[in-house]
Known about the structure:
- The structure holds two protein chains of two kinds.
- Chain A has helices at residues 83-89, 124-129, 148-159, 170-191, 229-233, 237-244, 255-263, 290-296, 306-317, 323-339, 349-367, 372-387, 394-425, 441-452, 470-479, 492-495, 521-530, 561-565, 615-628, and strands spanning 121-122, 140-141, 432-437, 457-463, 483-488, 501-505, 508-509, 515-518, 535-538, 592-595, 602-605, 608-610.
- By secondary structure, chain A is of the alpha/beta class.
- Among the domains of chain A are: 289-413, translation initiation factor eif-2b, domain 1 (Four Helix Bundle (Hemerythrin (Met), subunit A)), CATH 1.20.120; 427-556 and 591-628, Rossmann fold.
- In chain A, strands 5-4-3-6-9-11-12 form a seven-stranded mixed sheet, with helices on both faces. A three-stranded antiparallel sheet of chain A has the order 7-8-10, with helices on one face. In chain A, strands 1-2 form a two-stranded parallel ribbon.
- The longest helix of chain A is centred in the middle third of the chain and has 32 residues, at 394-425.
- Chain A is globular.
- By secondary structure, chain B is α/β, with parallel strands linked by helices.
- Chain B is built from 13 helices and ten strands.
- Chain B has a seven-stranded mixed sheet with strand order 3-2-1-4-7-9-10, sandwiched between helices.
- In chain B, helix 5 (103-117) packs antiparallel against helix 6 and helix 5 (103-117) runs antiparallel to helix 8 (169-198).
- Chain B is globular.
- Chain A binds chain B through residues 427, 429, 501, 534, 536, 601-602, 607-611, 613-614, 617-618, 621, and chain B through 285-287, 320, 322, 324-325, 328, 358, 374, 377-378, 381-382, 384-385.
- Chain A: This is Translation initiation factor eIF2B subunit delta.
- Chain A: Residues 1-258 are annotated as: Disordered.
- Chain A: It is found in: Cytoplasm, Cytosol.
- Chain A: Its main location: cytoplasm.
Amino acid sequence: MESRRNPRAVVDPKVRQVGFFTSSQPDSTYQPDPIASESHPVVSSISPSGNSLSPVMIPPPRHNSSDTFPLRAAAAASAVSPSSFSYSTRRDFPDGSMTASPGRVSRASFSKPSSSLPGVGMDSMAAAKSSSVPASGLTTVSVVNMPPGLSEKESDQKKNSKPLKEKTTKAERRALQEAQRAAKAAAKAEGGKAPLVSSGSVASTNVKVTKPAKPSSQKNDVAAVAAGPSEKKGGQAEKDRKKDAPHPRMQYDDESRVVKAKRRAVVKQTEAKNRVELFRHLPQYEHGTQLPDLETKFFQLDPMHPAVYKVGLQYLSGDISGGNARCIAMLQAFQEVVKDYSTPSEKTLNRDMTAKISSYVSFLIECRPLSVSMGNAIRFVKNRIAKLPITLSESEAKAALQSDIERFINEKIVMADTVIVKHAVTKIRDGDVLLTYGSPTAVEMVLLHAHELKKKFRVLVVDSRPKLEGQLLLRRLIKRGINCTYTHINAVSYIMHEVTKVFLGASSVLSNGTVYSRVGTASVAMVASAFRVPVLVCCEAYKFHERVQLDSICSNELGDPNAISKVRGREDINYLDGLTNNANLQFLNLMYDATPSDYISMIITDYGMVPPTSVPVIVREYQKEHSLV
Amino acid sequence: MWRRSASFILDDERRRTSNSPPMADNTTRAPFQNPDAISAYYQTRAAHHGVITSDWLAQAQAAVGGVSGEEHPDSSVAELGKEKTFNVIEEFNGWRKQPDLAEAVAAIRALAAVIRASEASTMMELEIELKKASDTLKSWDKTSISLTAGCDLFIRYVTRTSALEYEDFNSAKSRLLERAEKFGEISCKARKIIAMLSQDFIFDGCTILVHGLSRVVLEILKTAAQNNKLFRVLCTEGRPDGTGVLLSNELSKLDIPVKLLLDSAVAYSMDEVDMVFVGADGVVESGGIINMMGTYQIALVAHSMNKPVYVAAESYKFARLYPLDQKDMAPALRPIEFGVKIPVKVEVERSARDYTPPQYLTLLFTDLGVLSPSVVSDELIQLYL
């Protein structure tokens, strides 16, 4: 890769360009973003043709207007977001999925329309109606409340648009934009009635997500968690819902969207100033600032339900962590919500409740980004709400919902775990040395059960900073009398030769068999595979997701950088303490990583033991089951 | 290199014209050895081969001579429970007497007969009867994977029908019977289907390596010969069963040029091989196969030399097992004769089969079609879900 970068003028070493770029030229239309730090890349890729993306990135044609796909691809710096319309045109949007785009780095800010915007600005509302112009990735989606100024910019950009974008004529695009603006105005009028858009609360209207430059627009996660099959059903309430929940995978590079999101946020988070360039698309906040603030606000919750608030605080402080625990806590909070719910006059239960749930979800997102398990659970809840027959009385509906949620928790989590344990225990033989990493709940249950069955084995717990979750697991295992060894991840290649099997947990398993789980899991799996030790992943089926992730960068979660700089209890080696705001040093505290399927021997789910290649089959069967239920 | 071309046909002619006995292949290969000085060790082994060969043949004769058919057709209808299970085994043995029929197919046929002869009046009762019969059959040979898999699949297939919702028990039962018969038919015809599917993969002038005696593979080669394809077969000896020798006998009857290899000569000859054909005792969920000891070795060598490994397996062999390594299976031991006395202190590895992981297999030829190894799990999930 280095050789390809030669022609590039090195403008800013902090900016890592991912992808293939020709020498950069300053773009005349580039307007420096006032908010951006000096690290904003001018370089971003302006190839002579004004394309921000290299010719190598060819978006797969997805839409009817797929013929407009040339390399320019997504171009764009600006947010191109899937917007709800894409949601309506495509049923199977994974919740909150975002595809990776190597050209992402080039996206500096929305205000930098360096590349020609292919797009047709699509308003989410209008989009729903005019799905013929999804324009594949090339669309720039304008935020619902985009100030007119920006819209103008869009039209400017359109004028500059590349000759490549000839397929949709200017007139067509202009007409479309007019339609969208009209719709937007209408939406604004209607928006005032949205119950949740109350002061200081919840989420932004900002549903659109900034899209990675590339045509990943195809994939899209579409709007928020709000999305969901219910979206399609509640076409009108769509607008309201959109307003309430920002996309769970919102890209945070886009300054204006972040500002908008913050305006509607309950949790006032200050963005971290010193961020790693490569991960600018992920949210990062100054930790420790919000908790006391939120705690004081506990009695001023108006639109927020106390149960949800409590769960949010627990997420924020780190009291509840782990896919299952978070999901269960959230679902139980929702049960409370349903219990205390009463339909306001002139509203239908379905739509109103869904809107409420969306607002709560956006609050939870602000506290801590959603995990995949939570996303799937939310989708389920919204599905159930939408499927409630209109004829039911309010109390019946509420009872039905509560029992549905209860059933979900029982079947998909609790009983699934029992089935997993039953299968996994058959793989443990006497004399085994089992290695586990972190503190996965499923694996813990397997080990405890195997011990109850009097199998003779010993456990190797591998741990890593800064969370040191393995210590919790270690304590629980030792209390039951299991023979344990404890080590840190740096020693994993040292001890791997004595290990017979590796048991790992997962936050999610994706469609191509990639296991998305706590950071460090990939390393352990890789070392195990190099030593030809079988790697078994224990994961409930509800955590499976249909999106595909190729690396750990495009979708991840950033933790508190101070946790890395500070070593608790060891004052003598706190060399990095206080350096978090140094301009020359950025801390990166990733929470998740993606393990490729080649390193996984088998996945143990409640559907049995399957190879990683069978995950899409299970996702398919699972959806079928759900649509029938 | 010259062996890889179709000129082996000419070589064959040359060989046939020179009157060298087939067993003396060793001698032609090692010209510097004195052909007559066969060591006593090898002589004993040859004798052993002779014993096994004629023994098996005798068995086969007896089998063909026996009447294959159902016994106790409907007479024991009045009794239930024990009599029924006894019935099942009888049926099973009856079907098994046909030398060409696979065990699992015999079991499937027997189970279909159970449904036919069943006296149950409710669906639940029928299912329980079926389950009991299948358990009995499975316990007859606990180490046979295809038997277990066949029984399980049969029960899943047969009961997985909405016919069970019907009010009328008799119509539901007849529907079950229909499905059972169908399953039996498919299983019987499975070999023919597989043979037809694999014809495209055998081209003129190719060299095929086979391991041990698999009736499916034999069927494939037979069909290919009938279609007048010109190919030759390298056949491993298949210790300790000596099945390779049996296979070579069969093949020579069909006028297919066959060469016997020692099991250890596989890597040596892999260069001239175009493809490897093996059968399977069972196909596991990961897409790997459990087969006679030695298959894993051959697959490894073939993989490292980029030769395709094709597995011919009927679909009733898909089992819900998932071995992680070689020792993760139920053990199946068999006595191994070395021809000389082994001191008691010396342990002998007596396992009769090994597990080949899916990454070394290229394709599976099944009656469901030509599949890639990862499809096995797909099929199983759909059936078992």
